[in-house]
Design goal:
The chain is an all-beta fold. Helices cover 2% and strands 43% of the residues. A hairpin with a 4-residue loop joins strand 1 and strand 2. The model has no long low-confidence stretch (mean pLDDT 92).
């Protein structure tokens, strides 16, 4: 949990009925907490993670993306506005940083490998200003539930395209979607390849 941030050290970006969103000025940046499991320390409040099971055989493999009303998709049923979409992105593509005031996203990368970044924009959250990084895709099949007010984005890693299938509890509404630059200087997320 981060310490309380003085109001003068934040840059306000949006406000909804129940959310006030901001970025911590000159934040620490980097990758934040690298999350590999649902109980990893440093997970942003309200974000949920679940491993997916791949069932391979001699013909290929089967992967169940989600069951409506079960698992991380449990809350999607109550919205009555479920939308399922897919985004194919080419190698090296960065799509970031998006956020929503009302919409919850349920991400399932099903092809390729993604570096997923999350940033807690919610000023009233115990993890406000915290970063998470997930390395997920066909090599580590994870499902990630992203609540409203958590900034999100990804970079396609490797030489293959990546396919992200995602469900939302709201129909697409451009007035609910906000954006920050992928290289926002206060978020200061590290999109570079880690040369260790």
């Amino acid at each position: 949990m981060l310490k309380a941030v003085p109001q003068t050290e934040v840059r306000r970006i949006a406000q909804g009925d129940s959310l006030e969103l901001a970025v911590v000025r000159n934040g620490p940046g980097g990758l934040g907490s690298v999350i590999a499991t649902q109980d990893a320390p440093g997970l942003i409040a309200g974000v949920q993670v679940s491993p997916l099971i791949i069932r391979p055989d001699d013909r290929g493999y089967f992967e169940e993306v989600f069951r409506l009303g079960q698992g991380l998709a449990q809350g999607m049923l109550s919205a009555n506005r479920l939308q399922v979409s897919a985004a194919l992105s080419y190698p090296g593509t960065i799509k970031a940083i998006h956020y929503h005031l009302r919409q919850t996203d349920l991400w399932t990368p099903v092809m390729g490998l993604l570096q997923v970044m999350l940033y807690d924009l919610r000023m009233d959250s115990p993890t406000f200003g915290q970063l998470n990084t997930f390395y997920t895709g066909v090599l580590r099949p994870l499902q990630i539930l992203i609540p409203p007010g958590v900034g999100h984005g990804y970079k396609v890693l490797g030489t293959e395209s990546a396919l992200l299938v995602y469900a939302t509890d709201q129909f697409y509404d451009p007035s609910d979607e906000g954006r920050l630059p992928w290289d926002d200087p206060d978020v200061h997320y590290d999109w570079e390849t880690q040369r260790k």
